[in-house]
Amino acid sequence: LPVFYANTVLLNVSNLPFRLQKLKEMFISKFGSAPKFYARAPGRVNLIGEHIDYCGYAVLPMAIEQDILIAVEPVQTQVVQLANTNSSYLDFSTTVNNIQINKTKPQWHNYFLCGLKGIQEHFGLNNPTGMNCLLDGTIPPSSGLSSSSALVCCAGLVTLRANGKTLSKVELAEICTKSERYIGTEGGGMDQSISFLAEEGTAKLIEFSPLRATDVRLPSGATFVIANSCVEMNKAATSHYNIRVMECRLATKLLSKSKGLEWRKMLRLHDVQTKLGVSLEEMLTIVKEVLHPEPYSTEEICKCLGISLEELRSQILSQNMQDVSTFKLYQRAKHVYSEAARVLEFQKICSEAPANALQLLGELMKQSHISCREMYECSCPELDRLVDICLQFGAIGSRLTGAGWGGCTVSMVPTDKLNTFLKNVKKAYYQMDGQRLAAENNSLFATKPGRGALVFVEA
């Protein structure tokens, strides 16, 4: 389909592609009437820049072909009925004026409700439109390819269109970033931003405060390959992710206090660099001077900041962090500042395109994975093994992508070696394991930069 962005232009489709036709038929069978429009939001792969968006730093993702697709019919009743083409996801319905989002056990419909609630609250909708919705997803769940954020974005887009409202893509991304926090994930905005701002044929450097996206033309001669470790990780259902967010926030406070800044107002590691007016390399030196590699206890943090344990718990630690007793601040800050520098270097190499660009980019990807594994501790044995296998069979660079602790790797592979690479990785990682063998067809694939979210209607 041609690219049109739904919040401004509707796409007329005279002959529905097979997937849409199948979705339409299932919708009619389910609800007894035809959908009025469709919304789509893509997943993404982050090429470099892991766990730094919520610290205020630029990241470098691209949208992928896999997506969330929703068929929609606005209805007169103030009820939202949700169904999924995958029968393992149960139907759900709720009144639009009583949105309850369960943080304790994240289920698929809760991510839809995040997007729905975000748009409702932004516009202060007192009588929002009810909807019948049928969802079809092709992003592997809990794989680090942003299936949950794509669903939040798609739901936001659906709610916007059903209620006759318009927003810019940047506004939509910012609203969906905030609304995903209803489910308890303290994300930084990369996933939602690329889902709306992506364009076919280019990766994007996504910067924050203010949100903006710059084209990054990837070098010719290489293909990016995604490989699923088949270890699932759900950010909202585990504490790993939110602990890292808090460790970065605490590191921000201690670094700020040591430099005489107004530490109570400082929330992100990027803020410290901005206030001090120094380079990323100088920030790494400051981290070495100020923070120690041994874990910090809550008591030591209180002593460093000159506050009570009660103040730490009530003013700084989030509700789900109250029982965490130790935090690694040096390692997390070191990863963030070094990874932020790698992102900028990656963009620079793509822009200048030197003769050895592929080797330079590959080295940055390798360094990123080592930092994720050793400094941020967000890898796992399966991801490390998969990265090693990919490098062994010809990848120029390979690293985990997404939150980590499972999910996928992304590898840069010479295009002329792609088929051999895919064959060897399949054999070494998937076919040697019975459980992975069942998933191999959907777990290893080459990808190109895809288009962003859109709405379209049948002509």
TrEMBL record:
Signal peptide: none annotated. Residues 110-197 form the GHMP kinase N-terminal domain. Pfam families: GalKase_gal_bdg, GHMP_kinases_C, GHMP_kinases_N. It is an enzyme of class 2 (transferase). GO terms for biological process: galactose metabolic process. Its EC number is 2.7.1.157. One of its GO terms (molecular function) is ATP binding. GO terms for cellular component: cytosol. Keywords: ATP-binding, Kinase, Nucleotide-binding, Transferase. Residues 355-430 form the GHMP kinase C-terminal domain. Belongs to the GHMP kinase family. GalK subfamily. NCBIfam families: gal_kin. Monomer. This is N-acetylgalactosamine kinase.
